[in-house]
Specification:
alpha/beta; Immunoglobulin-like; 3 domains; disordered N terminus
């Protein structure tokens, strides 16, 4: 597949511009000149995902496709690609001024994948993104924040996207708190697509997209810029976070709910604990709701948290109610209890079978099924599961 930009409206050679201006002046009211549409220059800033690494089309990455989409939708746009492979947000803070010096109108800011690889904390990533956005605005740019795309299951770090999902929440809060627009690839890829992995190169590469994947990324940015709402309400940073261990027995659930499109249908939002609605404290408005809940009795075992919410679009977009689960302090599980329901049974065996025969780093490998933590899911792990089969914690 080869993507190539058509000639862009508004890109008229200087000599031709002079000639057209003279003709218009001579003809006066005889011929009405078409109204000119102001051109908007977008600077796409980020790492290799913005750059378009491993995209072998004529013009790689999401920026060329985004430029085409915006012009098709009536936006006279130029999208310049300033992605730099391998860059972290720490590096981005240092590089940004040299990019802004090129001039433009809007900064598209999507970065953080390499920070996770380097073990940089989510808080530090968000701080650096905030610094870059503030600097761009101080120089007259508008800013569109972008969440990062999710990571494949075989990624060496954060293969379950626990950090990436929390970072997405932090970026959403950063955009809301500063009145900025948001493109949310993480929500689209991870929450809305049936299988986002089909848009990745795969194999030994767990981070980069196919040409079709970059096109889908461009569509996410185009929808955000032109106001097309395809995403249900999304969460900010959630506490406790998904799969958190040793959570205090009286811990309060805290989360924010955002919508950057039509808005939240506020009266429909409900918090669920173990599948049942509870009386949570919900405040805010159609753009952000703050949800808080402290249990009347201490938590015990594994707690499953759900969230029902929909937006005001027609028809409405409803979010998947499954939000997270966490493990309360003092809870222990038998080896082999993959589902963490307190019993080793056929459900665990089915989940285990999906991973059998894999090694750490491979796509189907899951650490939770490697009971002896030797990097292989094999007969030794099966024997451990079998020894507890039918038993309860």
């Amino acid at each position: 597949m080869s993507r190539r930009r058509p000639s862009q409206p508004g890109r008229v050679p200087a000599a031709a511009s002079v000639t057209l201006a003279c003709l218009a002046a001579l003809l006066g009211g005889v011929l009405a000149a078409p109204a000119a549409t102001a051109q908007t220059v977008y600077l796409a800033f980020g790492d290799s995902i913005t750059f378009g690494s491993f995209d072998e089309t004529a013009e790689p990455g999401y920026p060329p496709e985004l430029e085409d989409l915006l012009n098709q939708r009536g936006v006279n746009a130029v999208v310049d690609n300033y992605g730099l492979p391998g860059e972290t947000t720490v590096d981005g803070v240092d590089r940004l001024d040299s990019v802004l010096d090129n001039g433009g109108d809007v900064l598209l800011l999507m970065e953080g994948t390499n920070d996770i690889n380097a073990g940089i904390s989510r808080e530090t990533i968000a701080f650096n993104l905030a610094a870059m956005a503030d600097r761009a605005e101080s120089r007259g740019f508008e800013v569109v924040h972008g969440t990062i795309i999710p990571r494949l299951p075989a990624a060496g770090k954060d293969h379950t996207n626990l950090i990436a999902s929390q970072l997405a929440g932090a970026v959403r809060a950063l955009a809301y708190d500063n009145g900025r627009n948001l493109a949310d690839p993480f929500a689209v890829f991870f929450d809305l697509l049936d299988d986002f992995t089909t848009l990745y190169i795969g194999g030994s590469d767990n981070f980069h997209l196919t040409p079709e994947g970059y096109d889908r990324l461009a569509l996410v940015f185009a929808d955000a810029i032109t106001g097309r709402d395809e995403i249900p309400p999304v969460t900010g940073v959630v506490s406790p976070y998904n799969d958190q261990q040793s959570v205090p027995r009286n811990a309060e659930i805290q989360l924010d709910l955002f919508d950057f499109g039509a808005g939240i249908a506020v009266a429909t939002t409900r918090l669920l604990i173990d599948g049942e609605p509870v009386e949570a404290t919900i405040t805010g408005n159609s753009r952000r709701q703050q949800i808080r809940y402290r249990p009347p009795q201490p938590w015990n075992g594994v707690v499953f948290v759900g969230l029902e919410a929909r937006d005001l679009a027609v028809p409405p977009h409803e979010r998947d109610p499954n939000l997270l689960q966490f493990v309360v302090e003092g809870t222990s599980f038998l080896a082999g209890d993959i589902t963490r329901d307190g019993r080793v049974d056929g459900h665990d065996l089915i989940d285990f079978a999906r991973t059998f025969g894999t090694a750490r780093g491979e796509g189907r490998y899951r650490g939770y099924a490697d009971f002896n933590d030797d990097g292989l899911i094999d007969g030794q792990d099966l024997a451990i599961l079998a020894s507890n089969f039918g038993k309860s914690s």
